[in-house]
Every structure is written in structure tokens, then in C-alpha cells.
Amino acid sequence: MKHADKNKIESTAAPLPDGHPSVAFGKVGVLIVNLGTPDGTDYTSMRRYLREFLTDKRVIEWPRVLWYPILFGIVLNTRPGRVGKAYESIWNKERDESYLRTYTRNQSVALASSLQSHPNVQVDWAMRYGQPSIKDRLTALKDSGCERVLIFPLYPQYAASTTATVNDKAFETLQNMRWQPALRTVPPYHDDPAYVSAIANSITEHLSTLDWEPQKVIASFHGIPQSYFDKGDPYHCHCMKTMRLVREKLGWDKDKLITTFQSRFGPEEWLQPYTDETIEKLAKEGVKRIAVINPGFVSDCLETLEEIAGEAGEIFHEHGGEKFTHIPCLNDGEAGMQVIETVVRRELQGWI
Ligand SMILES: C=CC1=C(C)c2cc3[nH]c(cc4nc(cc5[nH]c(cc1n2)c(C)c5CCC(=O)O)C(CCC(=O)O)=C4C)c(C)c3C=C
Ligand SMILES: [Fe+2]
Ligand SMILES: [Fe+2]
């Protein structure tokens, strides 16, 4: 037996004695998890989703006594209607769901297919907020015989408000299990050569489809409050490292590829430079052609389709910009699946 085979799950069990409860075993689970999404764009669905999201202490770290009166008194009364309209504009009407859900499901199906040569591996998907929940899918994997489960938070750059809260939820689910599966969590892969190449290639491939060349390419990441960074969150460093590597891969200089942060929420200062302000400034300075990419988002969603492809494009045009293009996320395409499969195969080493 090769060294790496020692940890593999062998199904050499004898038949169960009479009266013994039936047990499923011998499998390895992979659970890919993205942020979440409302079930519908109506007020009730939006409120339920935002409530689950915005009561997460990993997302809003303010003391509850200060935050809850604002959340329940103002935010959850005003935001569901406004954000519901934004979701409506990017809703996948064919499936009556958000694209984030569509892409995440497709990624799970494609990953399962690429791991077909390992029949004991079972792939599933979940959302941190909304459905399908981490609790339900992790329990289903365990019940179907997964003795080992790899949790894959679909965020290349680690942030406590994304990666850690997925892992927290998975471990919280285990707290209620008598017979827990062994759990592994996927580390950030912001500097993985497969990911860096996929982002660099997606830029060059997209630009080759245009009959114009952008003067600037903006890499816009979701922001976090500056105070989270000051407390030690590595997110900013991960974003900056990703973009240094992408720039090196492309052989571009610093002026051509700019890193910015979007999606501010609340009155605090967030990571800077802000995407909207940068785009406005560039347009005012006379830059006429830009492209924007969202390397931190594995799948297109509200934040990329509405906030960037929609709103950011409008800001650019309003202030004198002429040509604007949004470079799509890797989604469930071949290059994106190559990244997901590479990371999963590496993290499953010793288990398959
Ligand atoms: C303080 C609040 C928030 C922090 C911190 C935050 C971090 C963060 N979020 C993502 C990825 C996504 N966020 C999305 C939507 C979204 N984010 C917040 C707030 C914070 N995010 C809110 C309130 C919302 C909902 C929309 C809204 O009300 O504005 C999404 C899109 C989901 C979809 O269904 O399309 C993603 C994805 C990251 C990566 C991140 C920290 C690094
Ligand atoms: Fe967010
Ligand atoms: Fe740093």
C-alpha cells in the first residue's frame, strides 16, 4: 500500500448484526458554499434573507445593543423593498432564482462530474444565508455515508465575514451530531497559480472580444470596514496579493490595473479606494475607456451584475466616460471549474 493510501476509507465492513441500526458509511463529501441569496424578490423573502445575513456577528461586528435597534427599526423596514428591486433587475427569470444560486448549483454538478472517477466522493452545495442551508446539506451528506467532509467556502480571499462564518456554521451543525464526520475546510486560494492564471486569462480573453482597448482595467473587490482590517483581517492583503500576481502574469504596469473596493454598507469607513469614486474620478480626468473585473467573486451576483455592470457603468458615462465593459466572473465556465477542481483535488489529498 502506498503511503497516501493509508488514510483512504476502505469498505471492508462485515454485515451488521440483527437489531443493529443501519449505518451509511464509506464516502467523502465535498460541500461548496457561497454567500446566499433570497428565495424571491418580494418584501418578505428579502427581509428574511437580510435578517439572517445582517444578524450574523461575523458580518456586523457592532455591539448588538447598538446595532439591533437600527437593524430592526430602520434597515429591515427600508432595505428589503429597495434591494428587492435591484435583485429583480438581475433575476434569472428562466429558473426564478438569482444567478448566484444558478451558478453555484451548476458548479456543484460540474465538480461532481469531474470527480466521477472517485465514486465514493459526493458533491453538494449550500448557501450561508437562505436555502439550501449548510445545516441541511451537511446533515444530508453525513446521512448518506460521508465520514469525511471537505467544506469549501467559495471565496478566494479570506475574510472573517465570509470564509469564517461559513466554517462557523459547519462546525455549529456538527455540535448537534452524535456521530460527526471529520471536517476539513478549504484555505484561501488567492495566490493559487490556477486561480491567478484563470483571472489573468479571463481579462485577456474578454478584451480580445472588444474592438477597443481600455485605458484602465479596474479590479473591484467587495469591501469590508476598515476597522475589521485594523483588527487583523487578512482580506485586504489577500486582495492586493492576488492583483500583484495577476499584474505580473499579464506583464502590465501599476497604472493600467487598479485595485478598488465596492459595496460599502453603513456609515463606517471601508477599505479604500472606493470603486464608485475611482470610476467617477477617472471619467472626470478624461479617461474614456475602462473595463472592470470582480476577481473576488466566484460567481456573478447582485454585486457584480447590478452594482458594477449596471451602476458603475452609469457613473462612468454620466461623468464623461465613453466605453465601459464588465468582465464576467469565472462562474461555471471551463476555466472557473478548472480552478475549483484544482483546489478540491489538492485539499482532498489523502482522502481519495
Ligand atoms: C457590513 C456588511 C457587509 C460585509 C462586511 C460584507 C462583506 C462581504 N460580502 C461579500 C460578498 C457578497 N455580498 C453580497 C451582498 C451583500 N453584502 C452585504 C453586506 C456586507 N457584506 C449586504 C447587506 C448584501 C445584500 C445586498 C444588499 O442589501 O446590499 C453578495 C451578493 C449576494 C447575491 O445574492 O447576489 C455577495 C456575493 C464578500 C466577498 C465580503 C467580504 C469580503
Ligand atoms: Fe457583502
Ligand atoms: Fe497588507
From TrEMBL:
<feature type="binding site">
    <location>
        <position position="303"/>
    </location>
    <ligand>
        <name>Fe(2+)</name>
    </ligand>
</feature>
<dbReference type="Pfam" id="PF00762">
    <property type="entry name" value="Ferrochelatase"/>
</dbReference>
<dbReference type="InterPro" id="IPR019772">
    <property type="entry name" value="Ferrochelatase_AS"/>
</dbReference>
<dbReference type="GO" id="GO:0046872">
    <property type="term" value="F:metal ion binding"/>
</dbReference>
<dbReference type="GO" id="GO:0004325">
    <property type="term" value="F:ferrochelatase activity"/>
</dbReference>
<dbReference type="GO" id="GO:0005737">
    <property type="term" value="C:cytoplasm"/>
</dbReference>
<dbReference type="GO" id="GO:0006783">
    <property type="term" value="P:heme biosynthetic process"/>
</dbReference>
<keyword id="KW-0408">Iron</keyword>
<comment type="similarity">
    <text>Belongs to the ferrochelatase family.</text>
</comment>
<comment type="function">
    <text>Catalyzes the ferrous insertion into protoporphyrin IX.</text>
</comment>
<keyword id="KW-0627">Porphyrin biosynthesis</keyword>
<keyword id="KW-0479">Metal-binding</keyword>
<keyword id="KW-0963">Cytoplasm</keyword>
<comment type="pathway">
    <text>Porphyrin-containing compound metabolism; protoheme biosynthesis; protoheme from protoporphyrin-IX: step 1/1.</text>
</comment>
<dbReference type="InterPro" id="IPR033644">
    <property type="entry name" value="Ferrochelatase_C"/>
</dbReference>
<dbReference type="InterPro" id="IPR033659">
    <property type="entry name" value="Ferrochelatase_N"/>
</dbReference>
<keyword id="KW-0350">Heme biosynthesis</keyword>
<feature type="binding site">
    <location>
        <position position="222"/>
    </location>
    <ligand>
        <name>Fe(2+)</name>
    </ligand>
</feature>
<dbReference type="InterPro" id="IPR001015">
    <property type="entry name" value="Ferrochelatase"/>
</dbReference>
<protein>
    <recommendedName>
        <fullName>Ferrochelatase</fullName>
        <ecNumber>4.98.1.1</ecNumber>
    </recommendedName>
</protein>
<keyword id="KW-0456">Lyase</keyword>
